From TrEMBL:
<dbReference type="InterPro" id="IPR037066">
    <property type="entry name" value="Plug_dom_sf"/>
</dbReference>
<keyword id="KW-0813">Transport</keyword>
<feature type="domain" description="TonB-dependent receptor-like beta-barrel">
    <location>
        <begin position="413"/>
        <end position="788"/>
    </location>
</feature>
<keyword id="KW-1134">Transmembrane beta strand</keyword>
<comment type="similarity">
    <text>Belongs to the TonB-dependent receptor family.</text>
</comment>
<feature type="domain" description="TonB-dependent receptor plug">
    <location>
        <begin position="122"/>
        <end position="251"/>
    </location>
</feature>
<keyword id="KW-0732">Signal</keyword>
<keyword id="KW-0472">Membrane</keyword>
<dbReference type="InterPro" id="IPR023997">
    <property type="entry name" value="TonB-dep_OMP_SusC/RagA_CS"/>
</dbReference>
<protein>
    <submittedName>
        <fullName>SusC/RagA family TonB-linked outer membrane protein</fullName>
    </submittedName>
</protein>
<dbReference type="InterPro" id="IPR008969">
    <property type="entry name" value="CarboxyPept-like_regulatory"/>
</dbReference>
<keyword id="KW-0998">Cell outer membrane</keyword>
<dbReference type="InterPro" id="IPR023996">
    <property type="entry name" value="TonB-dep_OMP_SusC/RagA"/>
</dbReference>
<dbReference type="InterPro" id="IPR039426">
    <property type="entry name" value="TonB-dep_rcpt-like"/>
</dbReference>
<dbReference type="Pfam" id="PF00593">
    <property type="entry name" value="TonB_dep_Rec_b-barrel"/>
</dbReference>
<dbReference type="InterPro" id="IPR036942">
    <property type="entry name" value="Beta-barrel_TonB_sf"/>
</dbReference>
<keyword id="KW-0675">Receptor</keyword>
Length: 996
């Protein structure tokens, strides 16, 4: 017993003697991590003793202290958004470590919440990202949506107009709504961005059926693609659920360029280009015999009628022969669509800053002429983005953008005997009729149709002008920070103000206007204002365990959106000759649309990360909206996801595969009813001098609920050979519940239509993406990327008998979209022998894109993007009109004659709409830096020149201008029906880019 006590005392004595030696064997390194460009302290950077689990993190100012086992030691310094750095330390003491921002790392960061982000390697959803270089680095891009063609799997883009300034229907993973919003939610620097198509009143002169047939541009055209640094596409509800009941169609998050600390960089760019019609249909190869056959109708039962028809046909032949003798036939398609439009775009921007303030400022002006004389689009954009660090606790960012745009789109698309739409007039106009003005400026009457296309081109106007201001802001407050916890509070949001003016003018001398029963001139002046405000307040708590093996990020907050629309359209007919003001018209009407929408939401989300091996997320959002039947009822939208980075586990030993991630996600998002769908509409009336109101015939539903999109997504990501080759594969299944539909009602009901929740729908699809650095040498670099995606839809529940969706086609006579249980929502149906028959489906079988980037000798860049759409049909009603007018270019062929002799229903005009298109191609030369310094000194850092093209060629069996068509703009079931669109064009550019 005594021995044991004595031995215990000896151990304590030995420990006291040798403890200082053990302590002296460990060494403490202190210092500061700074950003190399600015010298600013880098907070929360990891400093780890290489080869061990011993590590720490820098504080809010970049300061750190770490005790290592011995010296010399090697430290591994790393953080998200920065390049990893190895630092050798020989002696104890204070050191300064500089780290540089990593472009590659920054591109790997993806938004996962309203105030948080995650490395792409840890992402549990198939979120696509598009960099500035991918978006606009190869060729001139007029609009953002048009620039996304072929660059994101799962995104179907269809041009609704070839007019300058665009017009696109953009769908993420198929049709998400039938009546409601099918375009995704756009968020630019935290500001909810308005993408309305604003009607002009043109339909009241042309006889078009609805405002979405007026060939308007969507307002995304106001955003300059060259200002964009990065785009993130949240394609489904599993990723977009945190954005609540405006996210059913997906979310596109756009981040514009910002400054970096250090030297001020100035960039100047000049593009010059031309645009030409991509696919003219051409003139029918007329002969005297074909003229006679076209306009003579045999009628043995009525000899007098046959004689009159023969005389008329012979008169046409005489006019044809006279035209041949006096200069030939007139190709009116070339006269209208044959202009060579000139394009210029000038850009100047500067960026820089110091450790406190960073800035990016830029100005650009694009002027684009159309392929029709007197059409065009111009856009002036001025941007200023500022980031300022007030203190170690507070910082803020602001994004300001002013845009002034002007658009002239003339008259194309659907009409009903307005004599204005070029496609209609060209379909019926004979090429031997001279419609050009005489020496006195008088335009001849078109004997074949109620309008002269040359008069329309020269004398009418269809214009709009927009002044737009966007202001976004973010304020960050760091509430608490220690080694394991970081708590911050963020307020962000912004305002989007749109002031739009439209102007439609048709002189009283226009043929249809001057005819008996005509309007005797038409003018419409629109004053349209949209004010959109959003704000959100979010608290974020980041927690790390001491060993940095487990990270927990929790966020919670509230969000608020307020939208006010005030569209006023003043119209006048029976104009005073030569006058262009509404007050100089005899009959005047004013149409005003007022709409106010308010959404309010609560949200919370928790993200957990264990050693970058297991990454899970759960979240929930509660939203209410004034567009719902009960504006105070909260609707919930959950989300959950899990990613398993198999290649990060200790057992993984396959060196060739450096990443293998399995992922699964589920989420729900919503889509409220349209404004006013909760109410039955009334109109003012005046009977015997007594004013009042009467039913308009539109029956609303006071109990209407938002559509709910519930999506399950699963897939995997793989990288091979040190990430030289990567593969992403995704399967999704999206169930849309409580679809809001509009159906026709019997007249006995007292209403014409009803809008309410009537159906369910599903979308299923597959997305694949492969990217490979095929060759990487000093003098040859080749990157190849390909995408494959398909979608299938089906109506799984319908509470009423199948019906033709109002406004989504031209009835079952010519063909329409038809809502039918068990069938795709994109089917086209016509009536044959008294029965509704599916004649086509506008949904493609699949789509692919092939992107190549090649660099030779570090100076010459070559790139091209090839797009392949397989399957899908269009309803070509342009061909229906040219057949009626006997002007189709193939009527001399056997196929043309067979079509003329068949029944004129939708089956006759459905055509395959697949294609292969060279969407983009470019060649650039970058001058060597030593050459520049020799001739220009150090003032100019880089010069790049190049040539490029868009829509260079298209291989297709489709017989009209473009297999991408949409008569109804970007709304609802719009794609796949063509009625005399503004033809698409191909563009070619010369580029000059100078960096100072």
């Amino acid at each position: 017993m005594k021995k044991q006590t004595h031995f215990s005392k000896m151990k304590i004595l030995l420990l006291l003697i040798f403890a200082p030696a053990f302590l002296l064997a460990q060494e403490t390194i202190t210092g500061k991590v700074v950003i190399e460009d600015t010298g600013e302290g880098a907070p929360f950077v990891n400093i780890v003793e290489n080869g061990t689990d011993n590590g720490t993190a820098s504080d809010i100012d970049g300061n750190f202290s770490i005790t290592v086992s011995s010296l010399p030691a090697r430290l591994r310094v790393f953080a998200l958004g920065f390049s990893t750095k190895m630092v050798d330390v020989a002696t104890a003491g204070e050191i300064t470590i500089q780290i540089g921002e990593s472009t590659e790392a920054l591109e790997e960061v993806v938004v996962t919440g309203l105030a948080t982000s995650v490395k792409r390697a840890n992402l549990a959803n198939a979120v696509a990202t598009v960099s500035a270089e991918e978006l606009v680095g190869n060729t001139g891009q007029p609009t953002v949506d048009g620039a996304l063609y072929g660059k994101v799997p799962g995104v179907n883009i269809v041009s609704s107009s070839g007019a300058p300034g665009g017009g696109f229907a953009l769908r993420l993973r198929g049709v998400s709504s039938i009546n409601g919003e099918n375009q995704p939610l756009f968020i630019v620097d935290g500001v909810y961005y308005n993408n309305d198509e604003i009607p002009t009143g043109l339909r009241n002169a042309s006889g078009a059926n609805a405002g979405n047939e007026e060939n308007s541009a969507n307002r995304l055209a106001d955003l300059d693609p060259n200002d964009i640094a990065n785009i993130e596409v949240l394609k489904g509800a599993s990723a977009a659920a945190i954005y609540g009941q405006r996210a059913s169609a997906g979310v596109i998050i756009i981040t514009t360029k910002r400054g970096k600390g250090g030297k001020t960089n100035i960039n100047f760019s000049q593009d010059v280009g031309i645009t030409k019609i991509a696919n003219p249909l051409g003139l029918r190869p007329w002969t005297a015999q074909s003229v006679f056959d076209a306009f003579f109708t045999p009628n043995a039962s009525d000899p007098a009628a046959e004689a009159r028809s023969r005389a008329a046909a012979e008169a046409e032949v005489a006019a044809f022969n006279n035209a041949i003798r006096n200069g030939g036939l007139i190709d009116y398609e070339d006269e209208i669509y044959g202009e060579t439009g000139f394009i210029t775009e000038t850009r100047l921007n500067a960026s820089g800053g110091d450790e406190k303030t960073k800035f990016y400022t830029g100005v650009s002006f694009r002027d684009e002429e159309g392929i029709i004389r007197n059409t065009g689009f111009d856009r002036l954009s001025i941007r200023a983005n500022i980031d300022h660090k007030i203190s170690d606790i507070f910082d803020f960012s602001i994004s300001s953008n002013y845009v002034k745009s002007n658009n002239s789109r003339s008259f194309t698309g659907n009409e009903n005997e307005g004599g204005l739409s070029y496609g209609y007039t060209l379909a019926f106009t004979r090429p031997w009729v001279n419609l050009f003005p005489d020496a006195a400026g008088n335009y001849p009457v078109n004997p074949n149709y109620p309008g002269n296309p040359i008069f329309t081109r020269d004398q009418t106007r269809n214009e709009d002008a927009t002044n737009r201001f966007l202001q976004g802001y973010t304020v960050n407050t760091k509430l608490f920070t220690n080694d394991q916890n970081r708590v911050r509070f963020q307020i962000s949001g912004g305002i989007d103000y749109v002031a739009n003016e439209t102007n439609v003018y048709i002189p009283e001398t226009q043929q249809a206007q001057a005819a008996p029963g005509g309007l005797a001139g038409f003018i419409a002046q629109g004053k349209n204002n949209i004010i959109q405000f959003n704000n959100q307040a979010i608290a974020v708590w980041d927690y790390n365990t001491k060993d940095n093996n487990f990270n927990l990020t929790t966020q919670a907050g509230i969000t608020y959106i307020d939208i006010e629309r005030n569209f006023v359209n003043s119209q006048g007919t029976e104009l005073t000759p030569g006058q262009t003001n509404v007050d100089q018209s005899l009959n005047q009407t004013i149409d005003q649309f007022l709409a106010k929408e308010r959404d309010f939401g609560y949200f919370g989300q928790v993200e957990a990360n264990y050693k970058d091996q297991l990454i899970g997320t759960v979240g929930y959002r509660l939203d209410k909206s004034t567009r719902n039947g009960d504006p105070n009822e909260l609707y919930g939208f959950p989300k959950a996801s899990l990613a398993v980075n198999v290649a990060n586990f200790d057992f993984w030993n396959i060196e060739a595969i450096n990443q293998l991630k399995l992922r699964a996600a589920y989420g729900e998002a919503g889509n409220p009813a349209g404004f006013g769908d909760t109410f039955t509409s009334f109109i003012s009336s005046n009977v015997g001098g007594n004013s009042g109101i009467s039913l308009q015939g539109l029956k609303g539903d006071p109990d209407i609920e938002p559509e709910t999109s519930a999506e399950f997504e699963t897939g995997f990501d793989m990288s091979f050979l040190d990430s030289k080759v990567s593969l992403e594969a995704t399967y999704y299944n999206r169930q849309v519940k409580d679809l809001i539909l509009t159906r026709q009602l019997p007249g006995s009901s007292g209403f014409t239509t009803e809008t309410t929740n009537l159906a369910d729908m599903t979308n299923q699809g597959v997305e694949l993406a492969i990217n490979a650095n095929i060759i990487e040498t000093d003098n040859f670099y080749w990157n190849f990327g390909t995408q494959f995606y398909l979608n299938r839809s089906e109506i799984t529940r319908l509470d009423v008998p199948a019906f033709a969706q109002p406004g989504a086609g031209f009835g079952t006579g010519l063909g329409t979209f038809f809502i039918q249980e068990g069938q795709p929502v994109t089917q086209l149906v016509t009536e044959i022998d008294g029965e509704e028959v599916q004649i086509g489906d506008v949904e493609p079988d699949f789509q692919m894109a092939f992107n190549n980037q090649i660099t030779l000798f570090k100076q010459l860049d070559i790139s091209f993007l090839l797009q392949w759409k397989e399957g899908g049909e269009n309803l070509n009603l342009t061909r229906f009109l040219t057949d009626l007018g006997q002007t189709s270019d193939d009527l001399e062929t056997e196929a043309g004659q067979a079509r003329l002799n068949s029944t004129a229903n939708g089956a006759r005009f459905v055509e395959p709409a697949g294609y292969v298109r060279l969407r983009e191609a470019a060649i650039y030369y970058r001058f060597p830096s030593d050459m520049l310094s020799s001739f220009l000194g150090e003032t100019i850092e880089g010069i790049k020149i190049g040539v490029s093209g868009r829509n260079i060629f298209t291989i297709t069996d489709y017989s009209s201008y473009d297999p991408e068509v949409s008569v109804n703009g970007g709304a609802g079931l719009s794609s796949g029906i063509e009625v005399t669109p503004f033809p698409s064009s191909r563009q070619f550019y010369f580029h000059l880019n100078v960096n100072f």
